[in-house]
Amino acid sequence: MVRVTVALVNALTPGERRGRPCPPPADPAAAAVEGLRAVYPSYREVTHGEGAALAEVAARLREVFAAVAADDLDAAATQVNTLLVETGARPVLERHDGEPWHLHFHGHHDTLADGWAASCATGLAIVLGGEFADRLGVCTAPHCDRVYVDVSRNGTRRFCSTACQNRVKTAAFRARGRAG
What we know:
- This protein has six helices and six strands.
- It is α+β, with helices and mostly antiparallel strands.
- The strands form three sheets. The protein has a two-stranded antiparallel ribbon. A two-stranded antiparallel sheet has the order 3-4.
- Strand 1 (15-17) and strand 2 (20-22) form a beta hairpin.
- Helix 1 crosses helix 3 (48-69) and helix 2 crosses helix 3 (48-69).
- The radius of gyration is 17 Å and the shape is globular.
- It starts with a helix and ends with a helix.
């Protein structure tokens, strides 16, 4: 669920991505669906209204990453708790599409946006409530504000992508060359 959260937030966050301007999406609803499909390519058809509601959820999820990046876990937890309460997140075992039984989290209204908000908030709650709260972040590369979840073994990730990491390392190498 955290991978979906990252994809949704990054699909809808204007600002900068990998050193280039990233304008607000012309159609936030379509961008939300694109973010969802980045993780689940064969996800069912999503209406424009469902996509628009999902885009609103993504903006609220972004606040959690921003709070963690600012070392304000209290604000991050408060935002996650608010989403959990609003959605009425509840665990449900489901089996579909030939997959084995697995855990889903649904909201009490069971709309697409409510269901994904419940799932994403639950995923973030599991991360924040465990020993890996520092694994959520906002890219530290200059001119990039994409979010990420660090799934590396040593937990030292600071960048949203290898591209941003390489940009920073190359800039540092060139700076050392000019200084020496």
